């Protein structure tokens, strides 16, 4: 658990968010403020809507057939579902790291260069190379892959692949990074490395992380929201949620009585 | 007669299963011992011993019966008939067979033929009866012996599994041996051809005019067997076909896998695959009567000289025929690209077409290459469309507007019509077939290797 810091400005403000997959409703009028430059952890039992919530923020639910979203998600005061906001630009500002490491079948270098290329961020090859190297460095991967930048990204170990995916996400300089259980496919050592990395990334980025691991939520986050059956039961400073929850269901979940 | 025998045999096998199973149940019923295998395995084992030896006997009989009966008929014929030259003797036997079957013979049957026919009928009846008896007694014998071997600790399951494995191996051996046989026959006939025409002339010659003299005094039939124009024709038509099939097939696969809604996909995919079900001769008609004249008129409008049978018409129609082949295989490999890769790309802000161009297609490329190579070997082997739409003239040309001919078409024309079987003209078909077979074999091996390497990556 990190020391409680003064609440920063709100980066993402979610109001009355409901999500439907066809007939089935997955989220029921959720409200949540995500403060800038902090790590917000979303916890809760499987199927409670954490990932659905996360995927609304960068509109990844767009690609799912029959998915319908109501309510507002304000990124710096602008609704992400606004027609004037282009989804391509939105996703450049809100990056995502997935549960299973999913490097492209390209070289390590090409993996990181992918985002800057499609957004035309670098004007020359040298600049692109500088972005790739600094992203790998910030993801704590540069030392390990320095000599194998042109080997396939899939040849790295699981933990390295996940850090490659983080490097790939930060290469487009997003403002928010969404992480959907980024450590669930990794061993404890790789997990510890990534947790340390998340703590460092907080300086530059706003991070929202979904996790099933209570200890992880307590270790890396400043704020925690507990989801249950498509609603947020309780949210607040991580220290308070874990030591003195007000709701009985939160108490039961974090002490392992259900979920 | 044979139907009755088959029914009896099936009933015997069924009862063997039943009796073996009941015997096993009875063995276990006294409670002193437990069965090693389940009762149905005991039943299957007895059924196998009842059916398999009978089956082997049946196959052997079907193979040997005609020769055996013939030999017996011949030995019963009068001496002066037996002394006849072998061709005459075979003719007598042939006539006798016809008379016995109640058919008409080419010439009035002589007394020796009638005698042989009577012998033949008698022997066949006796032999059939004797064989039926033997078959049934073998089946019953196998059943009885196997049933007597059943004990509680009898390892019936292991034996049945072994029998299953052996029969599977036997089936694949048949398939492989058939292939080997075909290849060997190709090689032997091709060797005979190369004794008449040198391999260098065949592989490097540029003139193809496969006429050999039937009579010594015939004019203009010296024969030229340079296969290069023929192979070049195949190459030209294949290139045209692939130029049509690969882009159209690949892009429709991309549409089906990544853009189409499930409902559209459910309609379009079967419709596309119907193309694969159209007989190639129908494509041939379409190419010869619709596409070729259309191209010709279109060419005339542009002031081009288009032959009424052109490589372009045949190649384009062949390409249309191969579209479903390419699109169906590519659709499979594109759909097999993990959706996590697509999401990763979308998550970085890539559009759909960027994702497909930069992530999905590169990931699926080995599979697409494999699919294309399989389609190429399909195009090389296609005959009917080319026969009807591309013509027979072996022109050495790269101009798609002229008539060309392909390897498969030449094989057809070489073997259609009257020719003595050992002339260079006929044997040339085998040499062409051999080279064609080698080409498609190499392509298929390359294609399968590429596809397999791709599979290893994502499974």
Sheet with the most strands, sense and barrel status of chain B: 2 strands, antiparallel
SSE string of chain B, helices as H and strands as E? HHHHHHHEEHHHHHHHHH
Name the CATH superfamily classification of chain A: P-loop containing nucleotide triphosphate hydrolases
Distance between the termini of chain B: 55 Å
Q: Approximately how much beta-strand content do the residues of chain B carry? A: under 5%
- The computed structural class of chain A is alpha/beta
CATH topology of chain A: Rossmann fold
CATH topology of the largest domain in chain B: MetI-like fold
Overall morphology of chain A: globular
Low-confidence stretches of chain B: none
Polypeptide structure, described:
- The complex is a heterodimer of chains A (259) and B (459).
- Chain A is of the alpha/beta class.
- Chain A has 10 helices and 10 strands.
- Chain A has one domain (10-111, 174-254): P-loop containing nucleotide triphosphate hydrolases (Rossmann fold).
- Chain A has helices at residues 50-57, 87-93, 108-118, 125-138, 142-145, 158-170, 188-201, 214-220, 238-243, 248-254, and strands at residues 10-21, 24-35, 39-43, 67-75, 78-79, 94-97, 176-180, 206-210, 223-228, 231-237.
- In chain A, a hairpin with a 2-residue loop joins strand 4 and strand 5 (78-79).
- The two termini of chain A are 22 Å apart.
- Chain B has 459 residues and is an all-alpha fold.
- Chain B folds into 2 domains: 2-154, no CATH class; 224-458, MetI-like (MetI-like fold, Orthogonal Bundle).
- Helices cover 78% and strands 1% of the residues of chain B.
- Chain B has a two-stranded antiparallel ribbon.
- The radius of gyration of chain B is 32 Å and the shape is flat.
- Chains A and B meet through helix 2, helix 3 and helix 6 of A and helix 12 and helix 13 of B.
